[in-house]
Prior knowledge:
The protein is built from 15 helices and 13 strands. By secondary structure, it is an alpha/beta fold. The protein has two domains: 4-127, Rossmann fold, CATH 3.40.50.300; 133-378, no CATH class. The strands form three sheets. A six-stranded mixed sheet has the order 8-9-10-11-13-12. The radius of gyration is 22 Å and the shape is globular. The two termini are 32 Å apart.
Amino acid sequence: MEHPAMIKRILEIDLPPDRSAFLWGPRKTGKTTLLRQQLSGAFWIDLLDYDLFLTLSQRPTRLRQIIDAQTAKTVVIDEVQKIPHLMDEIHWLIENRGIQFILSGSSARKFRRGGASLLGGRAWRFELYPLVSRELHNLQLEKALVSGLLPSHYLSPDSEMDRRAYVHDYLKEEIQAEALTRNLPAFSRFLQCAALTNGMLLNYSNAARETGVSVKTIREYFQILEDTLLGRQLPAWKRTGKRRLIERSKFFFFDIGIVSALLNYRSITPGTPAYGRAFEHFILQECWAYRHYSRKEFPISFWRTASGAEVDLILGDADAAVEIKSAENAGDRTKGLHLFMEENRCKKCFVVSRDPMPRKINPFVTVLPWKMFCVMLWEGEII
């Protein structure tokens, strides 16, 4: 079994000397390991060090004194979200000392809510995702769909305990400690509700009824998940044709394993709805990561009509349409893709499945085994 520190990550923090950067990513994606590997000569400030955290919280100007005593011109500040008001000092040091900062964090919520500086365009933005197929020698699909692809979970001999601890720590350290909500029991119920509907159309009213809070509160809860990078929305394709389209987004947690933890899954059986949703989630994770790591930043959406016809993923401006089926034989039915192509000029259409071999359903639609799709995606052959 590979060790997390031995895995070569795709993301490269390559910056010109006059630029700083944020590295955002949920807890345990491997931000610290990545920065240690790629910036071994940098001066390091870890805000998990309580004494240092306390000192800089009380006297942010002490940062200037600490850095003035160093010779390194590149400084890494880990867990920067813990002291948002440190950003003014960082800004000053960039402007007046020419220091290059790499700032890693798992939440920008305090920055947005407190009006803290995000360096006004002087810092590039990088995101670190869970592991992807390109980073693993032989990704084990059945394992990944349950454990998820956070390095320490996927490679763990007991991912179930690790996943439970992750959710507990998130509630204790991100939600309770940061006072993001006063009603922790309701937020815990909300998390389970969000896991049950992961990958489905957002329905704030249903979630409010299941959780026992107002619709306004549910909207705030979903915003907390996005601000703390625990999930994100997949928007609906909105370019209308003759068919009426659904415009509500879907919500996905950032990693499949978080859903398994919240729903207490120890395994997922092929052929079940849970397996199908997890498989779709896995393919979406690959696409989200590829979009950022390739620096193409194309839109990713889904297409669904009011009558229920659907295409799971639209990549770019209809550069590729992707239907995701977890079956070992995807069959030849492609109603959603056919209807989408009637109204949009789609360059490529794929069905991604667990089929053993690629095949052409018709001149426009290709069935790809999931491993082949992932290889083609990372080679830039899908979009």
